[in-house]
Amino acid sequence: MKLKTLSTAILLATVPMTGAFAAALDRSGQSIAAFLQPGNYFEAGISVLDPNVSGKSTPLAPGLPAQNTGDMASDYHFPHAALKLQLTDNFSFGLLYDQPFGADAEYTTPSLNFTDTTGGTSAEVKTENLTFLFGFQPNQNWNFYAGPVIQTAEGEVSLRGLAYGGPTAFGSYDATMKKDTELGWIAGIAYQIPEIALKTSLTYRSEVEHELQATETVGYGTTNLALNPAFTPGKTAVTTPQSVNLDFQTGVMADTVAFANVRWVNWEDFSIRPNYFGQAADARGLIGANLVDYSDDQISATVGIGRKLSEKWAGNVSVGWDSGAGNPVTTLGPTEGYWNLGLGVQFSPTPNYFIAGGLKYFWLGDATAKTAAVQNVGKFEDSDAWGYGLKIGYRF
């Protein structure tokens, strides 16, 4: 069936990413949907997530109480933008900006496992991607694309409390990892039949290897681990994971499309092991211990229906699922996957531009939190999150 004048490509662009709360550090979902829009196209948007992640600490010595952790997940937002140019009938170029991976956590409620008199455990991780895409379309159906990716990564962490051994171990550890810029790559293939609003794409993104210069201290900043003569100087190696996205949409009746996305991310091979932290852990008998790691790869899926409601209005509804990246999981993100329900609406004052908004509610999976030395330092249950998004799109 043919859909009517309002482009199905716009219809499927209605809802921006409404704040992914995915497994491990996954945030943006790394969509390339803007690059597959017809003609010349620009979009920009922002997503906001308001999570509530709390639990009870596990007593780590006889006589100690289980304590409420309070909400340890901070609100965060991340912008995204894309420009796509159809240079000729057969060649296209795209420039995409997003923040694919990140974390923002802070324990502020007093708890023996995660805080002490100096403050609480906290972490912030930020990455930025600038993706260059070059596409070749031999005909109206096929699109082959590839290009380089420039990625930056930086972070900082503070560990406090008995979960990390207290102040005589890693419970007084701080690290700041300076921004590093490295290259990765992307490649994929897309197929479409515009007459029936059929479009599918398969996109691979490579891992990106970073070497971060880290300043690491213990004893609440009084001892720089770099000064320990037993430790070997070096940078901190962090490799952001490879991933695969499969996207599909098709018309199912007049003015209505069904869509789906499946994503795989290779978190099982990911870890953060700051240089001196790792050597200090080995010296304490925690051979090979990491500051952050995950036991499983992430698989997520979203399915939904989009519908044109009038010449200017369209909307959609979606359901999403995420597997998580293993359990127990790091204290800096103690949830295991989710289910979510999303709603979105688009207003198109004229055929060449639109304003879209959406929201999602996340039921976050229960998880056990772990550290390098202890596999159960807290149980986190009944967590949830709200995601909000706003996006504008323009054809020229």
Structural description of this entry:
- It contains 2 helices and 27 strands.
- The strands form 5 sheets. The protein has a 14-stranded antiparallel β-barrel with strand order 1-3-4-8-9-10-11-16-17-20-21-23-24-27. A 4-stranded mixed sheet has the order 2-26-25-22, with no helix packed on it. Strands 6-7 form a two-stranded antiparallel sheet.
- The longest helix has 9 residues, at 275-283.
- The chain has 396 residues and is mainly beta.
- The model is unreliable at 1-19 (pLDDT under 50).
- The protein has one domain (8-395): Outer membrane protein transport protein (OMPP1/FadL/TodX) (Porin), CATH 2.40.160.60.
- The chain is 3% helix and 55% strand.
How are the SSEs placed, and which strands pair?
Elements: H1 8-11, E1 41-52, E2 55-57, E3 76-86, E4 91-98, E5 102-106, E6 115-116, E7 119-120, E8 122-136, E9 142-160, E10 172-193, E11 198-205, E12 208-212, E13 214-218, E14 223-224, E15 236-240, E16 243-253, E17 256-265, E18 271-272, H2 275-283, E19 292-293, E20 298-308, E21 313-322, E22 329-330, E23 338-350, E24 353-364, E25 367-370, E26 378-380, E27 384-395
Parallel strand pairs: 22-25
Antiparallel strand pairs: 1-3, 1-27, 2-26, 3-4, 4-8, 5-8, 6-7, 8-9, 9-10, 10-11, 10-13, 11-16, 12-15, 13-14, 16-17, 17-20, 18-19, 20-21, 21-23, 23-24, 24-27, 25-26
